[in-house]
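Question:
When you can, review this sequence-structure pair and walk me through the tokens.
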Amino acid sequence: MKSEWLNKKTILAAAAGLVVGLLIGWLLIGWYLWPVQWVDADPWDLRMAHKEAYTAMVADSLANNGDYELAQQRLRGWDKKELSQILDRLIQDRRSRQLGLEAQHLDDLRMALALEAAPVPTTAAPTAVPPVTPTLAKKSSLAWLPVALGIIVALLLLIAGVGYLTSKRRLRRPAAPPLPPDMKPVEGYVPLRRFVATYRMGEGSYDESFSIEGADAEFLGECGMAIAESLQAPDRVTALEVWLFDKNDIRTVTKVLLSSWAFGNQEVRSGLAAKGELALAEAGQEVLLETDRLRIKATVRDVTYGAEEPAGSYFERVVVDLDAMMKAAETPA
């Protein structure tokens, strides 16, 4: 009898020590000392509210730049059924709030993705569960041991799964978006990426920048577009500057895009000449910015002027394509 009691005591002590050790390692080490850090999550792994916000931003971007291939690239990998349901919910929400333009942008995105309208799933009413009459069972000193062991095994599997997913996500690097069909290689240069800078009237502190990276994700520099000159009110922008920064070059190269009114005003031209070469902001206008190893071809895609006088004096909207290239001899392997 004494030997049997000692065996039970030893089993209980070992099981209790295993549970306590596992909980200490899980709570102290796993949560506080070396907590799991999620990185490089894909959009479809986000919460539903964030998925809807991301989808709405893609729809707004498509409405601004009209780049169907870029929109398809940003939503590649999504479950089509879930994406269709998200779009339906967003469209119904915008229509219920009398936001017809936003609803149209979302509908245009659905057409661009060739998705059919799908009914939003409704939550079924919970099925009534009949009450369970409790029964008394004979207590056993070791009755809890199988439950404890099951919990331990489940926790170990969970920890192993989280570790595997974390290592896999850290190793996976998102692929760079494909180059637009009209972005052709230039002699001596290799194309890297096209950025789209968009100014809209009312953005008084507009300053948009983009990070330029090589094929191996090495940081090479930055480019962007910002306000160069305004007429009295901050939202009456009459000139925008396009700039290029190369981390291996101490210079920041700048070119200035003028409204038609400013381009013909000698006083305004003289005041802006120190910022860089001047050019008229009109559809199809191209300007080149070059540094020690980088090159930006800035192409004005669209220009819309405000309605107030003097005519053509301030921008309502300007869209500029920034094609980033790198000298072929400097391209990373």
